[in-house]
Structures are given as structure tokens and as C-alpha cells.
Write a structure and sequence with these properties.
Length: 127
């Protein structure tokens, strides 16, 4: 179970890192024409960059806090925050009729639920 939770957290961290780097460093105009990035053309640059920074923090919170044994309780807390982010992403993509991205975000949400449940519960770092 512990290994499965580490793998799930690692996968989510990779997704968060990729999304965070993209949203933080790629110009919004370029993101807006990318497949699945059309929503960025409807919001401000500051909003996109803020989401990117939050995703970079999520990548660190999902793995580094536990790997470095610095406040490992942040792993499930970050997973819960990721769940909220994925709900927002699903709503955004759903409104745009992008069902494939809704399903992808649902998969990320399911992984985050697993990490939150496992790290708050049976495989807590404090136990």
C-alpha cells in the first residue's frame, strides 16, 4: 500500500510539475492555441501564472515534504487541494465541451483521493 501511495503521489507530482512549468513559463497566448488550453484565452495572465505556481507548489507538496521528512502531513493536505483544483478543471473543461479533458482530470482526481485517503488513514506518515 505504501508503495502504491508513493507511485500515485509521484505521478500526480509529475503532472503538477509539467502543468506548473507550462502555465508559469509559456506565454498565455501560446497556451490559448494549444489543444486543451483554450480556456487560458478567456482569463488573465496573472490567473494562469498563479495556477502554474500553485501547481509547482503541489508538485513539491506531494513528494518532497515526505521524501525530505519535512512536514509529511502536507502530502494528504496537498492531495485534498489537488482534488479541489481538479473539480475546477473539470467544470472549466466541461463548460467548453472538452469531455476528454474532463475524464483526464477525473483520473487525476481519483489518484488524489487515493493519496489523501491513504496518507490521512492507513498509511499515515505519523503512524
Amino acid at each position: 500500500m505504501n508503495l502504491a501511495l508513493w507511485i500515485a503521489a509521484g505521478l500526480l507530482a509529475a503532472v503538477a510539475l509539467t502543468g506548473g512549468v507550462t502555465k508559469t513559463f509559456v506565454p498565455r497566448e501560446k497556451l490559448a492555441v494549444a489543444h486543451g488550453g483554450g480556456w487560458t484565452g478567456e482569463v488573465g495572465t496573472a490567473f494562469v501564472k498563479t495556477l502554474g505556481i500553485l501547481e509547482l507548489l503541489a508538485a513539491a507538496g506531494l513528494v518532497l515534504t515526505a521524501a525530505l521528512d519535512i512536514a509529511p502531513v502536507l502530502v494528504p493536505v496537498t492531495a485534498v487541494c489537488w482534488i479541489l483544483l481538479m473539480v475546477g478543471a473539470m467544470i472549466t473543461h466541461g463548460r467548453r465541451g472538452e469531455s476528454a479533458f474532463v475524464l483526464l482530470n477525473l483520473a487525476y482526481l481519483a489518484l488524489a483521493v487515493f493519496v489523501a485517503w491513504g496518507r490521512f488513514g492507513p498509511e499515515s506518515f505519523t503512524g
